[in-house]
Amino acid sequence: MSKKDPAPQADDAALLGAAQVRELAERLEVRPTKQWGQNFVVDANTVRKIVRVAGVGPDDVVVEVGPGLGSLTLALLPVVRRVTAVEVDPRLAGALEETVRSLQPENAAKLRLVAADALTVTKLPGPDPTALVANLPYNISVPVVLSFLQHFPSIERVLVMVQLEVAERLAARPGNKTYGVPSVKAAWYADVELAGRVGRNVFWPAPNVDSGLVSLRRRTPPETTASREDVFRCIDAAFLQRRKALRGALASWAGSPDRAEAALVAAGIDPLTRGEQLDVAAFARIAEARPEGQVDTPPRARRRGRETRSPVPGP
Ligand SMILES: C[S@@+](CC[C@H](N)C(=O)[O-])C[C@H]1O[C@@H](n2cnc3c(N)ncnc32)[C@H](O)[C@@H]1O
């Protein structure tokens, strides 16, 4: 056993309870807005749980998207090396540092505030982030997760609280009725698990739906010569008409149903399969099998050009 003091836990720290969240909001004259998905956590046990399930520790540099009034930030700060908090609402961004200074002065130096729209953030100050931990605004939760996994390869783990339905969709497996574009794209970057459910009563104001915790662990993307963009375009096309067999659903993506069929056969996939049955590795194989130089063309041009294009290459 080490003689060193154990790493501080969120349990020891000053956290915000329901009364403090409301008081703080009142003092800052912040009325929560739907536009920015502002449902603040008013339950200290929930933020402790998020930090615990995230599995972050003293070496972690955590990005928190949407710190709001600071409920989760205050639970993260005692536990991790640094928190970089990205907040779009200038009223909240302007107050966060002061909140931390007054409640946890010992951790104030660990906080870095970035006042910005998280969807535009592709670089962050300070050391590379190792984790994303956030209670995300519901309307942009999937784009935020995908964008941070794309732009920050140093992020190894993600724990986000999102609308339960979105959490289930992110963690869904092929064949499941909630499996869709978010599930396949998230699986490109990470192994994804539903890590818990959270009732709506831990928020102020309470949303109309329950929430879920989603845990993502970075993995190596499927091996393919196709670019991520190409694979993602193929996924988008397949799910645009999710009940359709891929031969038809991928027709415009490939140039024609015949070309789609050829790419599917070359990838070893039955052309009558539906996208909802395939995992991300299968989409990577299809994108790889697509004829080179192929571009999405309007239907008329596609019909005219059909006979003149070169055949789809074999596997
Ligand atoms: C669900 S609240 C969570 C607040 C706080 N983390 C908590 O748990 O109480 C979402 C937060 O994200 C912020 N937000 C919304 N859209 C954003 C964006 N595009 N970029 C950064 N922050 C955003 C909101 O202003 C709000 O503070």
UniProtKB/TrEMBL annotation:
Entry-linked Gene3D superfamilies: Ribosomal RNA adenine dimethylase-like, domain 2, Vaccinia Virus protein VP39
Catalyzed reactions: adenosine(1518)/adenosine(1519) in 16S rRNA + 4 S-adenosyl-L-methionine = N(6)-dimethyladenosine(1518)/N(6)-dimethyladenosine(1519) in 16S rRNA + 4 S-adenosyl-L-homocysteine + 4 H(+)
EC number(s) given by UniProt: 2.1.1.182
Entry superkingdom: Bacteria
UniProt KW Manganese keyword: no
Compartments, record wording: Cytoplasm
Keyword Transferase set for record: yes
Domain Ribosomal RNA adenine methylase transferase N-terminal, residue spans: 46-220
PROSITE patterns: RRNA_A_DIMETH, SAM_RNA_A_N6_MT
Pfam families membership: RrnaAD
Residue numbers binding S-adenosyl-L-methionine: 39, 41, 66, 87, 117, 135
InterPro entries xrefs: KsgA/Erm, rRNA_Ade_diMease-like_C, rRNA_Ade_Mease_Trfase_CS, rRNA_Ade_methylase_Trfase_N, rRNA_adenine_dimethylase, SAM-dependent_MTases_sf
Keywords on record: Cytoplasm, Methyltransferase, RNA-binding, rRNA processing, S-adenosyl-L-methionine, Transferase
Predominant location category: cytoplasm
Residue numbers spanned by region Disordered: 288-315
Family matches, as HAMAP family: 16SrRNA_methyltr_A
Role: Specifically dimethylates two adjacent adenosines (A1518 and A1519) in the loop of a conserved hairpin near the 3'-end of 16S rRNA in the 30S particle. May play a critical role in biogenesis of 30S subunits.
Similarity annotation: Belongs to the class I-like SAM-binding methyltransferase superfamily. rRNA adenine N(6)-methyltransferase family. RsmA subfamily.
UniProt protein name: Ribosomal RNA small subunit methyltransferase A
